[in-house]
């Protein structure tokens, strides 16, 4: 992962999944700051809050986004992200991280201009190594 990755944001409503993914990220020494949002609405709010801390397009926030969540799902997150993207002072990389094996979900995610890649859960050290963060 690139040195300029400042924060990883896990957007997932499952506590156990978040715990496991935080451990994988910690062991991989990806970055010092890992934030968790329980739904897409919290995820968007956390991105907006990061504007207070990160102020450079050289800084990157990596988002691992689940699709199926309450309140605002992954698709809703992507719609809200599109509305707020130009207001963010930093660069983002969004990876859909889902357990869905529905080919329609994968195709829809890969067609979305804001999604960098679709990854199947769980996040692993080897899956992290295969991702492009620049």
**What distance lies between the first and last C-alpha atoms, to the nearest angstrom?**
8 Å
Order of helices and strands, N to C? EHEHEHEHEH
Share of helical residues: 25-40%
Strand order of the largest sheet: 2-1-3-4-5
Quickly count the helices. Answer: 5
| Computed Rg | 13 Å
Instruction: Report the portion of residues in β strands.
Output: 15-25%
Low-pLDDT stretches are: none
Number of strands: 5
Described by the principal axes of the CA atoms, the overall outline is globular
Q: Mean pLDDT score, rounded?
A: 91
What can be said about the biggest beta sheet? 5 strands, parallel
Helices and strands: which structural class?
alpha/beta
Key descriptive features of the protein:
134 residues, 5 helices
What does this structure look like?
The chain is an alpha/beta fold. It is built from 5 helices and 5 strands; from the N terminus they run E-H-E-H-E-H-E-H-E-H. It has helices at 15-28, 40-50, 74-84, 103-111, 125-129, and strands spanning 5-11, 33-37, 60-65, 91-98, 115-120. It has a 5-stranded parallel sheet. Helix 2 runs parallel beside helix 3 (74-84). The longest helix has 14 residues, at 15-28. The chain is globular, with a radius of gyration of 13 Å. The N and C termini lie close together (8 Å). The model has no long low-confidence stretch (mean pLDDT 91).
């Amino acid at each position: 992962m690139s040195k300029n990755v400042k924060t990883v944001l896990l957007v997932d409503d499952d506590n156990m999944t978040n715990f496991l993914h935080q451990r994988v990220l910690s062991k991989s020494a990806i970055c010092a700051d890992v934030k968790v949002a329980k739904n897409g609405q919290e995820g968007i709010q956390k991105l907006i809050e990061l504007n207070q801390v990160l102020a450079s397009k050289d800084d990157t926030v990596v988002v691992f986004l689940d699709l199926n969540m309450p309140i605002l799902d992954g698709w809703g997150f992507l719609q809200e992200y599109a509305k707020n993207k130009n207001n963010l002072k930093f660069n983002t990389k969004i990876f859909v991280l889902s357990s869905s094996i529905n080919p329609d979900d994968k195709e829809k995610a890969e067609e979305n201009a804001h999604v960098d890649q679709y990854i199947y859960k769980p996040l692993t050290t080897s899956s992290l190594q295969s991702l492009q963060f620049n």
